[in-house]
Amino acid sequence: MATNETRSETSRYDELEIANGDVVIYDVDNHRAWIQSDETVTGDEIA
Fold it and tell me: Which InterPro entries does this UniProt record tie to the protein (predicted)?
């Protein structure tokens, strides 16, 4: 796994669409840091 020093800022976040269609965007280094939305957006759209 890349560290904060080697990972680009855009690759630090990932997104997951859950069964009900909501999208969860989370920090891959800190899984407690996440947001959830019932609107579908990509990480690039909010970055």
Answer: DUF7331
